[in-house]
Design a protein that fits this description.
- It contains 21 helices and no strands.
- It is an all-alpha fold.
- The chain has a single domain, classed as Growth Hormone, Chain: A (Up-down Bundle).
């Protein structure tokens, strides 16, 4: 173990953050590029793009728990998490290169439509992100003690990751999305290998579960733990059957079934909260976190998938493209006249640059000190309130370029907590000997709600007002904020086994 790891210096936390930064850069590149390149270069429709985005949740359902359990129990290639970070990083780099050549790949495979190849490449890209996602975050918990140092680790993770995400959107605006794909391929590859040379993982994870041996998990108990997600899981199964088994025969029932699943989730949520009021338990606390976080990601994924179409159809038509702020950067660097499609991409990238700029600064400067004073959960809820306000602002006033940027600024305050402090809260409520497994289960509250964007995209596509996507996001985040109020502040004694 190197001295800077023993002393937990700022330099160590910076190096420790780089694998997660690679994952974050992959995700930022995906958000900036995927909908844009599929709709403008390959001419896919909004619902087809939503199906391509579905590849991520589908791969996450399988990959995340498998990787989590294997990495908890096994040691090879000099680590527990390292092998998965390396493999995932290499695959991500390859898939970014493949996105540039979907038409060439489809011709080589003898396929007339690029759609199937796009789904395959997106699936492999998301598999690579899912393979890396949990280990890159779990390794932070593995090598830091619970409490202030772990919170510090996740705050540093978001500060470094957020800074590079800003760079991703800056590259997108100034040099274009094609250049961004090349940069992402190189950077993700390097960040998945080089930092691991300086980090030593513990061979044995200390179990904090008082009732079971470390590493042993009951499938029945795991299924029970996922109770708050049953509604989202039911909809996920419905989507898989509709898209991949019955060839869209059930599409007419897509939206009504989505409403039914949301209603079921709310009923289960009330039951989980009521049970917690009667008898508080570590399992119940974890379930409340799953419930609250699931609605966070229903709103966020709705934005990620459809916001490009909102910018393209609502903001750009009302602009003078020569006087657009986002275009000034791109026009200056390239000397080219900007089109409607490129303007939409530039505005979207500048909006996400603002969001990630805020998210990069807040964790270390504000969230970490505030969490020490009032607690992590209260700090997280306060930040989440700004995400609610941001989506509300975008729904009412987001049609102008400057108003769009201000709405993204508000959302950035909440986003800073969603991808940093929430992992510190979760990691202190579960058995350290099963960190990979519980990190995977927690990420199910991201995966299954993301699948519901298929139904939301249908609502938005059929609506005369594309801004309804922000109404959906606002409503979802408001529910999440309310549910988070019932999560108790973390204590060293609270662990889910």
């Amino acid at each position: 173990m190197l001295p800077f790891q023993k002393k937990l210096t700022n330099g160590f936390f910076a190096v420790l953050s780089l694998p997660a930064t690679g994952v974050g850069f992959s995700f930022s590149t995906q958000v900036a590029v995927l909908s844009w390149i599929l709709s403008t270069k390959y001419n896919l429709h909004i619902e087809d793009v939503a199906i391509v985005w579905l590849a991520g949740p589908l791969s996450g359902v399988i990959m995340q728990p498998v990787v989590g359990m294997i990495s908890d129990k096994n040691w090879f290639w000099g680590g527990r998490r390292k092998p998965f970070i390396i493999v995932g990083g290499i695959l991500s780099a390859l898939m970014f290169m493949a996105l540039l050549k979907l038409d060439v790949i489809s011709r080589l495979m003898g396929m007339q439509s690029v759609f199937i190849v796009a789904v395959i490449v997106a699936l492999l890209l998301d598999i690579s992100i899912n393979v890396t996602f949990n280990p890159a975050r779990s390794i932070i918990a593995d090598v830091t003690p619970a409490g202030k140092q772990r919170t510090r680790g996740y705050a540093w993770m978001q500060a470094i990751s957020g800074s590079f995400s800003i760079g991703a959107y800056f590259i997108s605006i100034v040099f274009g999305n094609i250049v961004l794909l090349y940069v992402a391929a190189v950077l993700v590859f390097l960040f998945s290998i080089v930092p691991l040379l300086f980090i030593k993982e513990p061979r044995v994870l200390e179990s904090t579960d008082r009732n079971t041996k470390a590493g042993k998990s009951s499938m029945r108990k795991t299924i029970k733990t996922l109770l708050p997600l049953y509604g989202f899981i039911a909809y996920g199964v419905f989507v898989i059957v509709d898209k991949f088994i019955t060839a869209n025969a059930l599409t007419a029932y897509q939206v009504p079934f989505m409403y039914a699943c949301i209603a079921l989730t709310l009923l289960i949520g009330v039951y989980v909260i009521y049970s917690g009021q009667k008898r508080l338990s570590p399992e119940n606390e974890f379930q409340k976190m799953l419930l609250a976080h699931s609605f966070t990601w229903l709103g966020l994924q709705t934005m990620f998938v459809m916001i490009f179409f909102y910018v393209q159809q609502v903001i750009v038509p009302g602009l003078n493209l020569e006087n657009t702020v986002a275009n000034s950067f791109s026009s200056f660097s390239s000397g080219k006249e900007q089109t409607g499609d490129s303007s939409a991409g530039n505005i979207l990238s500048l909006g996400f640059l603002i969001l990630n700029f805020v998210a990069a600064i807040l964790p270390v400067v504000i969230l970490e000190p505030l969490a020490k004073r009032i607690g992590k959960r209260k700090t997280y809820s306060a930040a989440l309130a700004f995400l609610v306000m941001g989506f509300g602002y975008l729904y009412i006033w987001g049609r102008g370029e400057w108003n769009f940027y201000f709405g993204m600024f508000l959302c950035g305050i909440g986003w800073s907590a969603v991808i940093s402090i929430v992992f510190a809260i979760m990691s202190e409520k579960v058995d350290a000997g099963k960190m990979g497994l519980y990190m995977s289960l927690f990420n199910f509250s991201i995966v299954f709600p993301s699948m519901m964007t298929i139904g939301v995209s249908r609502i938005v596509n059929e609506s005369a007002d594309p801004s309804i996507l922000f109404l959906v996001a606002f409503s979802s985040l408001l529910l999440s904020f309310i549910f988070w109020l019932f999560v108790k502040e973390s204590s060293k004694a609270s662990y889910a086994g």
